[in-house]
Design goal:
The complex is a heterodimer of chains A (186) and B (373).
Chain A lengths: L21 H19 L4 E2 L6 H9 L13 E2 L7 E5 L7 H10 L5 E5 H6 L22 E3 L6 H15 L19
Helix pairs in contact in A: 1-5, 2-5
Chain B lengths: L2 H7 L5 E5 L11 E7 L2 E8 L7 H5 L4 H9 L6 H16 L5 H29 L4 H21 L8 E2 L2 E2 L7 H24 L2 H7 L7 H6 L4 H5 L7 H4 L20 H23 L20 E8 L4 E8 L7 E5 L1 H7 L1 H5 L4 H11 L3 H5 L1
Helix pairs in contact in B: 3-4, 4-5, 5-6, 5-12, 5-15, 6-7, 7-12, 12-15
The chains are: A alpha/beta (186), B alpha+beta (373).
């Protein structure tokens, strides 16, 4: 998002215009803080569980661990309403295009957590398996990796808190879209 | 225009929609191709393979000890029972004498697994038909079983506690105490389940009379587990082909004759009571002794074919091994309960509404990685 240093100001513009440069940057950074605070604490996740990790993800959402304490509880079945995919389970060759399509359907900003060994690297199916994608980051860009087979709910919670910490460092001025150049391997 | 004019002027036509692979009610990544007319289902075509992880092929490269951990990831809700199935097959092939202690512990943990699976099913099924509270109740009680598993096996879900020949390690000193506490706790909670959902008139109206499966169809489709038993088909492997310590306990095979979704629901609720009674009979009488029988480090089965079936939370799981005398199986085949239970979905869902299909699928209790393997 670029900032025009010399905006065209109409003659009859009411009020005072702060010139670009330092003054405007102060406004954007303060806005960043507010926006990031809002984004980080209201992450809506997509229902996306392919295998065993989905059960631990459900446990994280249920009575004992209760991720709604951190603002994650609104799980959405539609990618158009979600901000976050938690890849809970193995991604196989037939599922990979579907995962990519779901990711593309989500609105920016969007984040991805790879939960469990299968989503990170193929896990137990790394060797000798002809159908497993060896890591979901071959398909879509991943923000946080949560190891385990399956990870404990506490581990998933920590991964989610790390994602929140990552979101809080974002700035509107230097916004990076993780999908840009992803297919070219950049 | 009145309805007859509309009917005369416009023709209705069938069309196809996808349900899944990304759909919360398919419990994973099953894709159903529905041919519908209005909202009436004309045909259900399952499209499998979205979580096919080539487990059977991988088994051909692994030793018999390594195979066990792959079976955890098939039907992850009854992981212990899957492990047990492979171990029993190998043990029978080796003609090993398994200590009584192992048999009893396996049975107790197997029944705990069944309760854990059914509580999860109960919670998720309630959520599918629109009762979100059940989700929290079911998972609350499931956590207590996970604690027991974690203490004894070191893992909450994929336990990998069995090895060919016995158990990985002995039970934790707290195991008996914790299990008794759980039984006492769960006996007060199960009636609560009934109060919350079973007796609810809205729920009953929703579930009764849909997805009806007759006994003949249950047999010809190879239905097993609670699905078969809700249609009056006596198919409990624990009863008819007893393994481990099931011959030492007395329990009823829960049978219903209605064959609709509500009957399948009731069978699972009653099965939890039976599981509690099985654990109660065994928990005070765990025999002393070794927790494993000595096997060779490299297990080689003599040439031949071996088959063993067990009753998982979903039904009959068969393990079929073809051995050529080497340390790996030549061919490994799993007869998974979910696959045959899925095959009858088209039969029982046709003629119903899409909403009924969700309720019907919920009571079939499918685990997709078990079907795709």
């Amino acid at each position: 998002m670029g900032i025009n240093n010399t905006p065209d100001i109409p003659e009859d513009f009411p009020g005072k215009v702060i010139p670009g440069g330092n003054g405007a940057n102060i406004l954007v950074t303060s806005l960043d803080e507010i926006i990031n605070w809002g984004r980080a604490n209201s992450l809506w996740s997509l229902y996306f569980g392919t295998s065993c990790c989905a059960i631990e993800m459900m446990q994280t959402g249920a009575a004992r661990h209760d991720y709604s304490r951190f603002g994650f509880e609104v799980a959405r079945p539609s990618p158009r309403q979600a901000d976050l995919i938690i890849i809970a389970g193995t991604i196989v060759n037939k599922m990979a295009p579907v995962l990519r399509r779901l990711y593309d359907q989500m609105a920016e900003p969007k984040y991805v957590i790879a939960m469990g060994a299968c989503a990170i690297s193929g896990g137990p199916f790394y060797y000798n398996s002809y159908s497993v994608v060896k890591g979901a980051d071959h398909v879509i860009p991943v923000d946080v990796y949560v190891p385990g087979c399956p990870p404990r709910p506490e581990a998933l919670l920590e991964g989610m808190l790390m994602l929140q910490a990552k979101i809080k460092t974002e700035s509107m001025k230097a916004k990076v879209f993780p999908i840009d150049g992803f297919d070219e391997g950049l | 225009m009145d309805t007859t004019t509309i009917k005369n002027n416009f023709r209705s036509e069938e069309y196809q929609i996808n349900m899944g692979p990304q759909h919360p009610a398919t419990h994973g990544v099953l894709r159903l191709l529905l041919t519908i007319d209005g909202e009436i289902i004309k045909r259900v075509e399952p499209d499998l393979g979205y979580i096919h992880r080539s487990i059977e092929k991988m088994c051909e490269r692994d030793s018999y000890q390594q195979i066990v951990h792959l079976t955890d990831r098939m039907d992850y809700l009854s992981s212990h029972i899957n492990n047990e199935a492979v171990c029993l097959t190998v043990e029978n092939a080796l003609q090993l004498e398994i200590p009584e202690r192992v048999k009893v512990i396996r049975t107790i943990i197997g029944e705990l697994t069944r309760i854990a699976s059914h509580t999860l099913w109960w919670g998720v099924m309630g959520m599918d038909v629109g009762a979100l509270t059940t989700y929290f109740y079911g998972f609350r009680d499931r956590e207590l079983i996970n604690d027991i598993f974690e203490e004894t096996c070191g893992a909450r879900l994929t336990m990998n506690y069995n090895i060919p020949g016995g158990l990985m390690f002995d039970i934790h000193p707290n195991f008996v105490k914790r299990t008794k506490e759980f039984i006492a706790h769960f006996k007060t909670k199960l009636p609560e389940y009934d109060l919350l959902l079973t007796g609810n008139i809205i729920f009953q109206k929703r579930m009764e009379g849909i997805g009806i499966l007759s006994k003949e169809d249950a047999i010809s489709f190879g239905a097993s587990g609670p699905v078969g038993r809700a249609s009056g088909y006596s198919c409990d492997v624990r009863k008819h082909h007893s393994y481990s310590a099931y011959d030492k306990v007395t329990f009823n095979e829960v049978l219903k004759t209605e064959g609709d979704t509500f009957a399948r629901y009731q069978v699972r609720i009653l099965e939890m009571w039976e599981s509690l009674s099985i654990i109660e009979q065994l928990i005070d009488n765990i025999p002393e002794g070794e927790f494993f029988a000595k096997t060779n480090t490299v297990i080689k089965l003599t040439e031949g074919e071996y088959y063993q079936k067990v009753e998982t939370a979903r039904g009959e799981l068969g393990v079929y091994i073809v051995s050529t005398g080497t340390k790996n199986p030549y061919r490994m085949k799993f007869r998974s309960p979910g696959f045959s239970n899925l095959s009858l979905l088209n039969h029982i869902a046709v003629g119903g509404k899409i909403g009924d299909l969700v309720a019907t699928m919920a009571t079939l209790d499918l685990v997709i990685p078990d079907i795709d393997r």
